[in-house]
Design brief:
Elements (H helix, E strand, L loop, with lengths): L2 E7 L9 H8 L5 E7 L5 H8 L4 E6 L10 H11 L6 E4 L4 E3 L4 H11 L7 E10 L4 E3 L5 E7 L4 E2 L7 E5 L2 E3 L2 E14 L3 H11 L21 E3 L9 H6 L15 H16 L9 E2 L2
Parallel strand pairs: 1-2, 1-4, 2-3, 6-12, 12-14
Antiparallel strand pairs: 4-8, 5-12, 6-7, 6-8, 7-13, 9-10, 10-11
């Protein structure tokens, strides 16, 4: 079995991503790591080169600055990276996603166990979306998503976040996926407020949005935040100490929206019925 890891980066230093930690966290279970780096304004490329690892293969790109439609430029960069993969499995990590060392053996075994089962098109993970600080998790978004795809099927990434399988040229669907037996630790929403403001000022244009100054993480419904009592990946210690936001307070002026009310109803149903009903970009076949 051959496993290809892949990711794409641009201005990852300026934007406060733990991209070095992300890359290093997956290296033990991949045979190659494709890192697509868009020309930018910081030393992201130099830092990846400095990792000096034989599994890492760098591909430099120029982003299409005219592509402003719903993050499709992210999908373009993701696919440039995936098209360089030569493994049986292609393992995608975003620049703010990290694997826990305790999960690596289980994830590798999940790939190996499904290698010859053609019905398994992808492997999905549990997600922990740290929000505000690394001591708490936001639960309103997706809690499971695929990050490993079989590298012999026709798949595209519309906005970088998920895959669509093309059985026919004019019709797509989500992949059939089994559980990867691991968790993705997502740190993008607990970087420092300054770094988040810088990141949003640079990327909102690719989603057709105008930048609004980011004042902090507190404008959120109380029901969406739960305390994190687990352990972080060892490799994240330095980033958490020096790059993560240190404090969090709910904004007393915030009033729940209709979306918040719907989420509260979902949380109540999940707790009463012992279900997990967040949005899925895959079809589970466990």
């Amino acid at each position: 079995m051959k496993v290809s890891g892949f990711t794409f980066l641009r201005n990852a230093v300026i934007n406060g991503y733990p991209f070095e930690e992300s890359i290093l966290s997956v290296l033990p279970i991949v045979d190659e790591m494709i890192v697509v780096i868009g020309h930018g304004d910081d030393d992201t490329l130099d830092r990846v080169v400095a990792l000096d690892h034989p599994k890492i293969r760098i591909c430099e790109t120029h982003w299409n600055e005219n592509m402003r439609d719903r993050g499709f430029v992210y999908g373009q960069q993701k696919m440039i990276a995936q098209y360089q993969c030569s493994g049986d499995w292609a393992f995608y990590l975003e620049a703010d996603e990290v694997l826990h060392e305790a999960d690596l053996a289980n994830i590798y075994s999940a790939m190996k166990d499904s290698l010859h089962d053609e019905h398994v098109e992808a492997l999905y993970f549990d997600f922990l979306h740290f929000y505000g600080t690394p001591t708490q998790v936001g639960i309103a978004g997706y809690r499971q998503a695929p990050r490993i795809i079989r590298n012999s099927i026709r798949a595209i990434a519309p906005d970088g976040l998920f895959w669509v399988i093309l059985d026919k040229n004019k019709k797509g669907r989500y992949p059939f996926a089994k559980y990867a037996r691991g968790t993705i630790y997502h740190y993008g929403h607990c970087r420092s407020v300054d770094a988040m403001n810088e990141k949003l000022s640079r990327v909102r244009q690719y989603w057709g949005d105008q930048h609004q100054p980011f004042e902090g993480y507190g404008s959120i419904d109380h029901g969406e935040i739960v305390r994190f009592d687990g352990t972080h990946p060892d490799i994240m210690d330095n980033w958490i100490q020096h790059c993560a936001e240190r404090s969090f307070e709910f904004d007393p002026r915030y009033r729940p929206t209709l979306r918040d009310v719907r989420n509260r109803m979902r949380f109540w149903l999940e707790s009463r019925l012992n279900l997990e009903i967040s949005k899925k970009h895959f079809k589970a076949i466990d």
